[in-house]
Amino acid sequence: MNRLTTFVMLVAIAFSFIFHMFGMMNLYPAYITAPLLYFSIFLYILSRNHRNRFKGFK
Fold first, then answer.
1. Which of 4, 17, 20, 28 is most buried, with most CB under 10 Å away?
2. Best CA proximity match to 44, nearest among 19, 11, 22
């Protein structure tokens, strides 16, 4: 994974976290902010765990 993708993902997580804090202050609904934070963390972890894996012999 290149540096640009990592940087964009971390910015997305930071934005989602700040947005979620606004949700905890009842400025935005928490049912919108919580899944946004969850999916941004999920996509970051998913992209970090992607590697070339052995898929067996053909």
1. 20
2. 11
Q: Is residue 2 part of a domain?
A: no
Q: Which two tokens stand for residue 48?
A: 């970090």
CA 40 to chain centre: 2
Is 28 inside a domain boundary?
Answer: yes
Q: What is the pLDDT of residues 5-25, one digit of tens each?
A: 889 999 999 999 999 999 999
With 0.85 as the threshold, say if the pTM is over it.
no
Q: For residue range 37-52, list pLDDT tens digits in order.
A: 999 999 999 888 877 7
Host domain of residue 16: 11-47
How many domains is the chain partitioned into structurally? 1
Beta strands (DSSP E) in the chain are: none
